[in-house]
Amino acid sequence: MNEKSLRVLEFDKIKERLKKYTNTGAAKEITDKLVPYDNIYEVREHLEETREAVRLLITKGTPPFEGIYDVRSGIMQAKKGSVLMPVQILRIAAILRAGRRFQKYVSHREDEESFRIIEDICMGITALKQLEDKIFLSIESEEQISDRASSTLYNVRKNLRDKNASVRDKVNSLMRNYSEYLQDSLYTMRGDRYVLPVRSEYKAMVPGLVHDQSSSGATLYIEPMGLVNLNNEIKELKLKEKAEIDRILQELSGEIYDNITVVETDADIIWELDFIFAKAKFASDLNCTIPSVSEDGFVDIIQAKHPLIDRKVVVPMDIYIGKNFKSLVITGPNTGGKTVTLKTIGLLHIMALSGLMIPARENSTVGFFKEVFADIGDEQSIEQNLSTFSSHMTNIVNIIDKADNESLALFDELGAGTDPTEGAALAVAILENLKKRGSTVVATTHYSELKVYALKTKDVENASVEFDVETLRPTYRLIIGIPGKSNAFEISKRLGLPDFIIDDAKESIENETLKFEDLIQSLQDKNLKAERYRRESEDLKAEALKIKEKYDDKLLKLQNVRDKTVTEANREAKNILKEAKEEADNIMREMRELEKLGYTSDARKKLEEKRRKLGEKLDDAESKSYVRREYVGEELEVVKEGEEVLLPSLNQNVIVLTEPDNKGEVQVQAGIMKINVKLKDLRRAKGTQKKERKNKKRESKLNLRSIPSSVDLRGMDSLEATYVTDKYLDDAYMAGLSEVTIIHGKGTGVLRNSINDMLKHHSHVKNYRLGEYGEGGTGVTVAELK
């Protein structure tokens, strides 16, 4: 995106507002670098992450950013092996704590709303709870090391406190002895040593070391000889305390150095989350919504508001373009809001394409444009030594050189600044050229020729800004489909111009022109009603669709709960019956043992008969306890390995992996799951006649059960991951797997890019894609094998 348009449309002011919601300098730097993304996938993902952050703020409250700081300088020093200051270590621990709390913050139960993108981001956080706890245990504040940091430090400080108490007792005793020679009845400190304030004329009466004197020379600060040894011991203990503190700081810095990669990654993720939640807070304060993004350049923004205009006075407008027309010509009086309309369209697109929600109503749509060009009138002053017309033409030349079918071009007063006839002709030619290129164009003008051009030309539409003749004020409402009326006569009459002058002016204008102006007014009134009805019907339709989707989801959840309940009940019943059978067998074994001790063969026969009857009853109970569905379809008497059959209980086709065992059960593969089912529960797959797997060439000697459906590459470098993936794809292909999942994590994206580059040219891979919701998102790649 060109920087000129970002500046003209005042995107920098939006970023300055956004920075107020961040907690760290690192997040502010991310905000400074924010520009529109250059592919639609990134735009949608970053809009979705903002929506998720808003939902988290609503459902879970303030995110756990307490106590975090920008610790990049501390991390850089730690990477070099330097010993960190207590404040730096403490702030790094705060980052680790915030990361660990964030994982808990985004976690959710199975029945709760999930947050796919933010959860994927938080997957990169590695908790270092042990290091975090050790730091908070060792450091009390930004300047104070805790006594609990080590037993040595605790003992040194305990001894130091005892020595200080002894010295104070000794000093108080000496002060009483020398009270008549002291300037004040208070002791003081000089260089961490206890001294007495002795009057200079009595210095010989207090034997000791002179450390200082007052400015007047009347007082000498003497350390009595009886305190020298005690002061020396205190000094020695303080040196030991400092040495132990230095050792503790070095040890903690060393542990940070040992885990520096994790610390750096956690910090980067926290700063990214800080930026994401700043976007969410910004959106909440401005009452923004998330728009859809159209690949075809279709724009339909409902009740759009310029985010930099006071919310109490800004007038919302409806903007749509790109479906039936791709060029919009806006006419109307000066100060009517034409320039604001242009800036609103441009700025809201830049915001949305940068992953920011926009101040508009739900169900709004923005177009995906790789470039937004803006030739706004108030930018002419930056052009040196150029007239208004030359300034505009310089900008327009640049736009025409670069515009294509993925561009949005905004022109303010197109063709102005020169002869009206020539200016209008140039404006029509410019619009026609951009229309042929497929560019989306919005232009404001005063030229009547452009109104006629828009009326006559396909894919070009008129629009106007409404003006209230009664109050002589613009309403700032945009009306699409109707060209603007000048209202010159009405305004002049309201301002007091005599009627005879207005009548003379009307006579000098062709009758057809006056009729055209009256027709515009009539169409304007009808269009307002039609537009209001259309919007109301669209809102009702959108609301109905939302209600339908809501109840469809509820129905699906109820069905899933029902099926899950039935399955669990059957499993529990089977377990009870199995335990009952085992208990019966144990009883029979015990009976046989008893028989050996003296029971007759008649008793044994009776016991066997009882066991048989018990078994029949248990089997009957099992058949009754299993809730069976009446499956429609041709039952199978025999199946072969590799045959595709229908499993009605899952309502999907599965692949037979084994032949029936002595219990009449076969193992089948349903997607990535392998399950055992009874042969009688299988049906002939629709459209197949004992269809075997298509790829007979892939009859492998590999055991299918031994090849997993996914491979985890996290923690590997690119070279190792590529080698492991290549070998895994060979094994999966030989085992007959049709689809595999490659887990590489989100991280910085380096590992994902390396894997995707390899998959492009791999002989076994048919196609591949990033994971969807529920599969792992951008942290996995799903490959379909040939």
From TrEMBL:
Protein family: Belongs to the DNA mismatch repair MutS family. MutS2 subfamily.
Compositionally biased spans, kind Basic residues: 685-699
Protein's organism: Clostridium algifaecis
Protein name, as recorded: Endonuclease MutS2
Domain Smr: 711-786
Keywords from the UniProt entry: ATP-binding, Coiled coil, DNA-binding, Endonuclease, Hydrolase, Nuclease, Nucleotide-binding, RNA-binding, rRNA-binding
Quaternary assembly: Homodimer. Binds to stalled ribosomes, contacting rRNA.
Family annotation (InterPro entries): DNA_mismatch_repair_MutS_C (IPR000432), DNA_mismatch_repair_MutS_core (IPR007696), DNA_mismatch_repair_MutS_sf (IPR036187), MSSS (IPR046893), MutS (IPR045076), MutS2 (IPR005747), P-loop_NTPase (IPR027417), Smr_dom (IPR002625)
E.C. number: 3.1.-.-, 3.6.4.-
Region listing for Disordered, in residue ranges: 683-706
Annotated positions binding ATP: G332, P333, N334, T335, G336, G337, K338, T339
Coiled coil region boundaries: 502-624
Function description: Endonuclease that is involved in the suppression of homologous recombination and thus may have a key role in the control of bacterial genetic diversity. Acts as a ribosome collision sensor, splitting the ribosome into its 2 subunits. Detects stalled/collided 70S ribosomes which it binds and splits by an ATP-hydrolysis driven conformational change. Acts upstream of the ribosome quality control system (RQC), a ribosome-associated complex that mediates the extraction of incompletely synthesized nascent chains from stalled ribosomes and their subsequent degradation. Probably generates substrates for RQC.
